[in-house]
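RECORD CONTENTS
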Amino acid sequence: MSFSAVKTKEFADILHEIRSGTKIISLSGLTSIASKAFVLNSLQAEAKKTFVLVTDSNREIDSFINDLKFFRTKNETQKTGVLSLPNFENDVYSGVSPHAETLEQRALTLWNLTNSQPDFLVTSARSLITRILTKPEINSLGMTLKRDEDFSPDDLLEKLVACGYVREEPLANFGQFSMRGGIIDVWSPNAKSPVRLEFFGDTVDSIREFDAETQLSIQHLNEISIAPMREFPAKPQDFKDWSFFAHELFADDCFARNLRDRTQFADEGEDFNGWENLFPIVQPRKSSIFNYLKDCVFVIDEPVQIEQTLALFFETLEKRYSEIVEADDIGLKPSELFLSVEELRENLSNVQRLELRALGRTANEFDEQFQVS
């Protein structure tokens, strides 16, 4: 099937609405992820806008990513530009940290978004409402090192640890670094191979890409970018600061035991399980994915389903917060971790939306009011 096969009158009409800025556009009759990916890829190629594809869950993200990449390889001009932003699947009040792979994927995508916009960003309903750090804050997590320019090795090591890198001798995977004298090896998640940085004092004397297994050099580089491994930077002092403010926020004696379970680590500058969902005390999250993109088309896949998913999530979130308060455990209010319904409604009202419906419009439609109860 060629890309021209979808360029019917209906396709032309929808493309015209996108180009003319129609606020809400409805597209029905596409019953599979493959068919949706096929049409969306063609629309995006013609419209030349970033498409933010909002799915019901992380499972649909993976399916859409695979199909979008498949169809894009059929067009020689479309082989890159697809990013994913999955949501953290764990309960934010469980005291459990997010999965490392999700942390890595989100951090890399958010960091990439601070520098450029992709053709497609595939995300989930829950990621849509997740509060995140601002673009300047996320951008500052990454680093660019250039040969013959100064960059303190001590500053580099401190920043690597703060952004989630782990020391491993020798390194063998993404997110690891090693150090021997004035040589630092690091493997960024945005690179196929690790690099070896040789310093002369604070000056980057050499940058070489090398094979992790054989340790043999592949090529010399003039510069290298290092992406963060997590979107929440944390230095030892940040944990100590967190402990100070947590004692003020949870000063009541009923919180003493559960607070002590965390501060015994934080007071030593160490992390603890689930710290990511408590860190807005010292690092308020003042942004959302809406603030990272401009002149985009938000593609809402099956809006009724997404509405139901978010309604249930908001209800469960409030219930879980009430439960931990009653159990004298510590946790932040839902409003510090997620957008409210009103904030979501306002953000959606300010963007162009293309709604994908397998069976057409229903009475319970996802309109500008975004009726989440």
Q: What stands out?
A: The CA atoms of residues 15 and 46 lie 8 Å apart.
